[in-house]
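Section handout, structural biology tutorial.
Before the tutorial, make sure you can parse a SMILES string by hand: atoms, branches in parentheses, ring closures as digits. In the record below the ligand is zinc ion, and the chain has 381 residues. In the tutorial you will relate the predicted structure tokens back to the input. Do not try to memorize them.
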Amino acid sequence: MVSLLPALLGAERPPGLGDVADVRTWSHPDYTRVVIELTEPAEAGDVQRLAAAAGQSERLYLDLDGIWVGRRWLAGVDVNDGLLQRVRLGQNTKRRARVVLDLERIDRYRVLQLRGPDRVVIDVYGDRRDPETLEWSTSSRSTDRLGVAAKPIRTVILDPGHGGRDPGAIGHKGLREKDVNLRLARKLERILLQRGFRVVATRTTDRSLDLEERTAIAEAAGGDLFISLHANASPRRKTRGLEIYYLDEKDHRHSTEVAARENGIPRSEVDTLQRTLARFRVAEASVHSAELAAAVHDSVLASLGRKRGGPPDLGVKTGPFYVLFLSSMPAILVESGFLTNPSDARLLNDDAFLDALAAGIAGGLEHYRRSAEQLSAKRAP
Ligand SMILES: [Zn+2]
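Predicted structure of the complex:
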């Protein structure tokens, strides 16, 4: 049953239960994202799908064990974007809240649980009934049979990792990852603008930002490529080097430590996350993400190769990163070096090195843009 229990609504919050802190939605041309932010971790049940019945639209619902919302969200949050009518929340049992999505259209959905803050992300995919009502839905892209975006590559989303209350890795002599990432992003933005790209940064200051907010900014800006900038850390001081990640659902040879840190989850949860991601079709975009990673890797090596004592090349790798998964465009994550290694830390705090690294990344993006354009020119009738 999908009804919310009015009998419980007057009751006091039972001790030990969490609350819903916020409900946010974003309307993307291809899907609507619902984020339920929680004050405590909850056990989310499986999503149930109910066909439309007399007087009621099609619905999805899922239960959150250990959450008490009372009557606060009962009226719901109106969305009405042609895909989703409304999000409602109510109490199902004394220890279980229920999230109900009243739908207009749906093809498929996916659900992810994220940490820090604890939240449940539900993406509902489908063709909108009335796409013209959405201002930026006009950017929907035509794709050829290989899934290659025919739209020219223009907008690069730069995502400096961490920020605000989340410093990221803390390195040698207290060097903070969030500062290094932002500094590199600013340099990279300058070069990309010179080369005719449009650039949108997920943050330009030292502020906190959720992972799904980062990708929502990217989608809303109509981004074509997503570049997340990070720096690494290791308990072994000697470990150093630069590596580039992309998301591939098939590959299980991931780095547990890096994935745990960048996702903000315990190491013990990384394998579960990888399995969760593997249940979805991660992307038409994953082939393009692999090409993008290779182009940036080659270009960075060429750019840094001229500098002696640069970080060793650790290559292109795959890993389960929420920020890459939540993005619908070709996306990579650059780990610029190990902050915990004195040599890497010195470089990551050095303008000349960061300039060369930014030039290398920009060169890779330009190379990728050029080959994508040549490819679509070749395929044009
Ligand atoms: Zn990071």
